[in-house]
Structure formats: structure tokens, C-alpha cells
């Protein structure tokens, strides 16, 4: 995937401008504005949520702020270059989404404030912060860091499909080892036979689903990663084609046709990130801004998919759902 075209991205955001290089005259006209750097993997509803939240806080690109956006897609090898560009442009703050982007931003600067959004990493163990309450450096943000969430997903999937005994776990081998080990331990405790389905690139998906079928798994837990979220439609297509019930941490999966999800509201995390950006631009020290972890998790169920798979959800489970898609 190449860096997306400005016109396509503007259309996605309903007119919110994207900060690609402009003509010299235009650069001078907005040169006095504070600059927000944004390292993001793909154009999606999360980007729109961030831009909308910035507007709600009083920031409009080209009027009182400049948003320098770099969509990196599959170009992980260029993330360091993109991060250095944002530093060289003298951004006042950088929003870095996903572990790869955070690593690149942290490697590019120790002084520019960085707001991170990450569902896979422990920010303290990764060396990005001294503690959650007092990060102490130039990085804070919103981190999930609950690898044991895979155990809850197993519990919910088993409640929906009580007969399953062989579980496939789809995970990103480049960043998901901690999550996978925690999920593996939970499956062992539940006396469920686990089948590892690791991927490293989008091209691995077809083969791992073929293996899931050949190993006769009864359902699939989908762990989190930017790669997996970006391949949502393909994963759902493969799961439905092979009549496999799935549960994901990403609540957008059932809205795309997967069976169910249990996890944080990711667009809300991006809205919270906009509040962090606002506080930094107003003078707050990033080293003093506590790292947040999501406190609310949503259960989303797709009844249409359940019917197609011949699954009848217990009334008790439906009653706990935050959203039921019919």
C-alpha cells in the first residue's frame, strides 16, 4: 500500500484536511499554527473519531492548527523515516498509533511529546514510561495491556458455542507473543485444545484458515494487532466461508459480519487521545500525564451471523450484550 492520496483521505474524513506537503505559500500561511503529527496505519473510523474530537476541542486543520498525517500502511520499514519527518517539521506533539509507530516515534525524538495508542504493549516493560501514573519521559497515552483478555474471549465463545473443544487462535507473531501465551494458558486451564494460527503478513491468512479447517477447530479467537484489524474484511470473509464462529477484541469485527467481539471501544480511545493532544498544546507536561487503560469493555453480537452458522445465543448472553446486530 502506498501513502494514501490526499483526495481519498479528505473524502474519508468528510472534509477534514490532511497535512501532506503543500505549496510554499500555503506553508507560510499556516506556519504560525501549532503542528500535530499523526502516525497511523490506515484510513478508518478511528482517524475520523480523532479528527472529530479535535474539532470538538476547537482545532480545525488549516485554521488554527496544522495536522501532519503519515499513513504508513504496510510500509513498516519506512516508519522511522516518517517519524523523523514529523520531528523535522517541528511538530508540537505526535500521535503514534500501534506498537510499530510508537517505537518509530520514540526512536526519532526524546523531546517532542508523544501520545501513544497501543492494544498490545506494556509501556513500562517496553521502556517507554517509568510508570503508568507518572510516565516521566516524553510519552504517554492509552494502552490496553491486558493480555489475559484472551481468556475472557474464550469464556464468551464457549458460552455461545458450548460444544466446542478445539480452539484456533489467530495472532500476529510479530508483536503478539505475550497475548498468545496468556490465551494459551487460559485455554489450558479450561481444558480446551488450542491450535496456534500465527501470521506475519496479510498473505498468511488464507493458509492459516485452511489449516484451521484441516485441524477441525470449532471456533477462533482473534487476538489484536494493527495488521489483523486492517484485514478485518478478509478475516471475516474467510471465517464465514469456512463456517467458523469467531470472537475478536475489535468491536468492529461483528459489524463487518463476524460472530462476536469483546473489547474496548477503539474510536473512543482515539477521542481520548485528542484530549491528550489538547492538554499538551495548552502547556501540560507529557511526563506528568498518566497513561490510561480502558475501563469499559463492550460485548457486540451479530445475530445474523449466528443464524447463518446455526448458533442460538443463550438469553443470558444476549442480555449482557452492549450491541446486538440483527
From the structure above, extract its key features.
326 residues, alpha/beta, Rossmann fold, 2 domains, 7-stranded mixed β-sheet, 12 strands, 40% helix, 18% strand, elongated
Description:
Strands 7-6-8-9-10-11-12 form a 7-stranded mixed sheet, with helices on both faces. Strands 2-1-3-4-5 form a 5-stranded parallel sheet, with helices on both faces. The chain is elongated, with a radius of gyration of 20 Å. Strand 3 (93-97), helix 5 and strand 4 form a beta-alpha-beta unit. 40% of the residues lie in helices and 18% in strands. Helix 3 (45-56) runs parallel beside helix 12, helix 4 packs across helix 5 (99-108) and helix 6 packs across helix 7 (177-189). The relative contact order is 0.12. The protein has 326 residues and is of the alpha/beta class. The protein has helices spanning 6-12, 24-30, 45-56, 79-88, 99-108, 149-160, 177-189, 205-214, 226-230, 232-241, 252-255, 266-281, 303-309, 315-320, and strands spanning 35-40, 66-71, 93-97, 114-118, 139-143, 166-172, 193-199, 219-222, 246-248, 260-263, 298-302, 323-325. Residues 1-30 have low confidence and may be disordered. It has 2 domains: 6-144 and 266-288, Rossmann fold (3-Layer(aba) Sandwich); 149-263 and 297-325, Response regulator (Rossmann fold).
Amino acid at each position: 500500500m502506498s501513502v494514501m492520496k490526499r483526495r481519498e483521505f479528505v473524502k474519508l474524513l468528510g472534509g477534514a484536511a490532511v497535512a501532506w506537503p503543500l505549496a510554499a505559500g500555503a506553508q507560510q500561511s499556516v506556519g504560525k499554527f501549532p503542528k500535530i503529527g499523526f502516525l497511523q496505519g490506515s484510513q478508518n473510523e478511528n482517524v475520523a473519531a480523532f479528527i472529530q474530537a479535535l474539532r470538538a476541542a476547537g482545532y480545525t486543520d488549516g485554521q488554527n492548527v496544522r495536522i501532519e498525517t503519515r499513513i504508513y500502511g504496510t510500509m513498516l520499514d519506512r516508519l522511522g523515516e516518517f517519524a523523523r519527518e514529523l520531528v523535522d517539521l517541528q511538530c508540537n506533539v505526535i500521535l503514534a498509533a500501534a506498537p510499530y509507530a510508537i517505537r518509530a516515534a520514540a526512536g526519532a525524538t526524546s523531546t517532542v511529546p508523544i501520545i501513544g495508542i497501543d492494544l498490545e504493549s506494556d509501556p513500562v516493560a517496553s521502556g517507554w514510561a517509568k510508570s503508568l501514573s507518572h510516565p516521566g519521559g516524553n510519552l504517554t497515552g492509552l494502552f490496553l495491556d491486558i493480555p489475559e483478555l484472551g481468556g475472557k474471549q474464550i469464556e464468551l465463545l464457549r458460552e455461545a458455542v458450548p460444544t466446542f473443544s478445539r480452539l484456533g487462535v489467530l495472532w500476529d507473531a510479530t508483536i503478539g507473543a505475550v497475548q498468545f501465551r496468556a490465551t494459551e494458558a487460559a485455554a489450558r486451564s479450561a481444558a480446551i485444545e488450542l491450535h496456534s494460527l500465527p501470521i506475519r503478513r496479510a498473505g498468511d491468512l488464507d493458509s492459516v484458515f485452511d489449516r484451521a479447517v484441516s485441524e477441525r477447530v470449532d471456533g477462533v479467537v482473534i487476538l489484536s494487532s494493527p495488521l489483523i484489524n486492517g484485514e478485518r474484511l478478509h478475516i471475516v470473509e474467510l471465517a464465514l466461508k469456512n463456517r467458523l464462529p469467531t470472537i475478536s477484541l475489535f468491536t468492529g469485527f461483528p459489524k463487518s459480519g463476524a460472530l462476536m467481539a469483546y473489547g474496548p471501544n477503539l474510536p473512543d480511545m482515539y477521542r481520548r487521545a485528542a484530549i491528550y493532544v489538547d492538554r499538551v498544546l495548552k502547556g501540560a507536561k507529557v511526563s506528568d500525564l498518566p497513561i490510561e487503560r480502558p475501563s469499559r469493555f463492550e460485548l457486540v453480537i451479530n445475530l445474523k451471523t449466528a443464524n447463518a452458522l446455526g448458533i442460538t445465543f443463550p438469553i443470558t448472553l444476549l442480555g449482557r450484550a452492549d450491541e446486538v446486530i440483527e
